[in-house]
# Entry
Amino acid sequence: MILVEVSLSTWCDKYGLTVEQEPCVKCGKLLVADVPVALSGYRGLKSQSHDCGKEYDHFVLVPIKEEETEWRKIK
# Structure
């Protein structure tokens, strides 16, 4: 996973993403997915990690086109 340095609005507009809020399933803390990320074949948003660990982070992901999966093309 790569954290992408781009404005949240630009990232959301480019990939049709929406910032989402969900409570942590372990502790109930409200998690806001608002950090742009890139994964192989997906683009999205993740929440900041908190005391429960990364496995409880909240993600919003969308698949991307095959030609966009090359890491050097991330903008």
Notes: Residues 4 and 13 are 14 Å apart (CA to CA). Residues 8-15 form the longest helix (8 residues).
